[in-house]
Known about the structure:
Layout: E1 2-5, H1 31-45, H2 49-56, H3 64-70, E2 78-79, H4 80-83, H5 87-92, H6 99-108, E3 109-113, E4 117-120, E5 124-125, E6 135-136, E7 140-141, H7 142-157, E8 162-164, H8 168-171, H9 178-182, E9 184-191, E10 196-197, H10 200-216, H11 223-232, E11 236-240, E12 249-255
Parallel strand pairs: 1-3, 1-8, 8-9, 9-12
Antiparallel strand pairs: 2-5, 3-4, 6-7, 9-10, 11-12
Amino acid sequence: MLVLLPPSEGKANAGEGxxxxxxxxxxxxxTAAREAxxxxxxELCSGDEVKAREVLGLSEGLRxxxxxxxxxxxxxxxxxxxxxxxxxxxxLGLATLDAAARRRAAKSLLVFSGLxxxxxxxxxxxxxRCSMGVKLPGxxxxxxxxxxxxxxxxxxxxxxxxxxxxxxxYAAAWRPKGEVAGRTATVRVLHAPTRKVVSHxxxxxxxxxxxxxxxxxxxPKDPAELVGVLxxxxxxxxxxxxxxxxxxxxxxxxxxxxx
Length: 259
């Protein structure tokens, strides 16, 4: 199973660890594309701060993020699962998983990123600020920059069930196609009484779903099996099989309490 996650806007400081080594990151086929984004981002943030904040969509209160980006080559790095914070990651609670569940997380979780493309939670990265919606002066829209290298690398990595929990901005960088799409399930979280999409609670529920799958040791092989597993784990799931081959399954998870 491969679980596709969005990153978080908030990130923990990486501290004083050894700096980033791009060649050590998972999915080495993305290295050249990572080097291009990293170089552009560091150059941008080493120059005019006002321009950098405008490009990155940062407020005056976040001006410190520009200096952080400028120092990415030498900044300390730590596992991505420790760097990413926010609702989904707090609820997922990687640090509190038992050893077996942590091993499953290391193999199955893939976090998408405007800067790195996609990384495993064990990949060591520095704290940064660069969303997938950014348009860097020399590269243009990052989703477009990542599309071709992702299309080369990810179908090989996605050799089983693909559980896609990404937001639309990150999904734009890679959309499963063909046979891989048929093994993919996307998830919406709906408030059961109103059947409306819930945003903040969407992230918390997705974090709980991933934690449940990791701690249970379940290994569904396809979307139909995933639906059964989630129901066994206590989730209320409505599933819509694709009408034709090469399309992803659509799963709605219904929650009564939005907390």
